[in-house]
Amino acid sequence: MEYFNAFWVGGLICALCQILLDRTKMLPGRIMVTLVCTGAVLSFLGLYDPFAEYAGAGASVPLLGFGHLLFQGVKDAVKESGFLGLFQGGLKAGAVGTSAALIFAYLASWIFQPKMKK
Predict the structure, then answer these.
(1) 69 neighbors 91 (Cβ within 8 angstroms)
(2) One short Pfam family name for this protein (predicted)?
(3) What is residue 14's predicted lDDT score, i.e. its pLDDT?
(4) Can you state the percent helix, strand and coil of the chain, rounding each to 5?
């Protein structure tokens, strides 16, 4: 049942994003920012953890999970460092995932030799 819930929740999130792309004039970057901000707001309201418990990877893999990660990092850093935590918390929390994405993308570019579109 965990796989089914992850599949339908993740699919619903992706379908809603596709509807926003098709039916509005929102650009992909704005939709991605909306997802990150929605994840942070859900985390702030205390709704993200029960949602992620139910949906599993369907909630954490889309950008909602990144927004949650950033919010939790800032919240923890503010408790630890005070005002400076606002600036360092998100960077510390997101550094590993962002670094891994950059490293793996670089390695993939070596393997597959991408070409520019004409």
Answers:
(1) no
(2) SpoVAC_SpoVAEB
(3) 92
(4) 85, 0, 15
